[in-house]
Design a protein that fits this description.
- This protein is mainly α and 188 residues long.
- Helix content is 61%, strand content 10%.
- Strands 1-4 form a two-stranded parallel sheet.
- α3 packs antiparallel against α4.
- It starts with a strand and ends in a 13-residue tail after the last helix.
- The mean pLDDT is 77.
C-alpha cells in the first residue's frame, strides 16, 4: 500500500514528515501502520501530491518545445479559419447566384443553414474536444506536462473538424424537416 500525502497550494512539506517518508521509501520491505480511518493498513511507500489552490495559478510547465509548437499551430490555424470562412462565403455566393437565375431560394437557404450549423458545430466541438483531450492527457502520468497540452490540441482539432461536419449535417436535416437520424417525423 502507498500512503498519499496531499498538499494544497504552498503548504509546507519538510522536517520530520519528509525525513520519515524518505526513510520509509528507502527501507525496502519495512512498513508502518496507518492511522485514523486507515488504522491497520500496512504502508510501504509514501508519495506527496501537490494540488493547486482553487484560485491559485497553475505552475508554469517545462514544455518549451510544446509551447513553440502551439504558437506555430496558432499561426497556421488562423489563416486556415480565414480560408474556410472565405470558401463558405464563395459557396453561399454561388448558391445565391443560382437562386437569382432560377427564382428558387431553397438552395441558398439550405447552404446558409449548412454553413451556420457547421461553424456552430466546429466551435462547440473544439471546446468539448479540447477538454476531453486534456482530460485524457492526464493518463500520461509522469509525462502529463506534455500529454495534457498535446491532448488539448489534438482534441480541439478533431472536435472542430468533426463538429463542423456533424453540425452541417444536422442543420441540413433540420432545414429539410428531418430529425437527428435523417427521418421525416410522423411519416408512415
Amino acid at each position: 500500500m502507498i500512503g498519499l500525502e496531499i498538499k494544497s497550494g504552498a503548504s509546507p512539506y519538510g522536517g520530520s514528515q519528509k525525513a520519515f517518508d524518505t526513510a520509509l521509501n528507502a527501507s525496502g520491505a519495512n512498513t508502518v501502520s496507518g492511522v485514523g480511518q486507515n488504522a491497520g493498513l500496512k504502508i510501504r511507500r509514501a508519495q506527496v501530491i501537490r494540488v493547486p489552490q482553487p484560485d491559485a495559478p497553475l505552475p508554469a510547465t517545462k514544455t518549451g518545445a510544446l509551447d513553440s509548437f502551439a504558437e506555430g499551430l496558432s499561426a497556421v490555424s488562423k489563416p486556415l479559419v480565414v480560408i474556410g470562412a472565405a470558401q463558405d462565403a464563395l459557396n453561399l455566393r454561388d448558391q445565391a447566384q443560382q437562386s437569382l437565375q432560377t427564382g428558387n431560394w431553397n438552395n441558398t437557404g439550405q447552404e446558409a443553414v449548412r454553413i451556420t450549423g457547421g461553424w456552430t458545430g466546429a466551435w462547440a466541438g473544439a471546446g468539448a474536444g479540447s477538454e476531453i483531450g486534456a482530460g485524457l492527457g492526464f493518463l500520461g502520468g509522469p509525462f502529463a506536462e506534455v500529454t495534457v497540452p498535446a491532448g488539448y490540441l489534438i482534441g480541439g482539432l478533431v472536435g472542430s473538424v468533426g463538429g463542423y461536419f456533424f453540425g452541417s449535417y444536422e442543420a441540413q436535416n433540420l432545414y429539410n424537416g428531418r430529425d437527428a437520424f435523417g427521418d421525416i417525423p410522423n411519416s408512415q
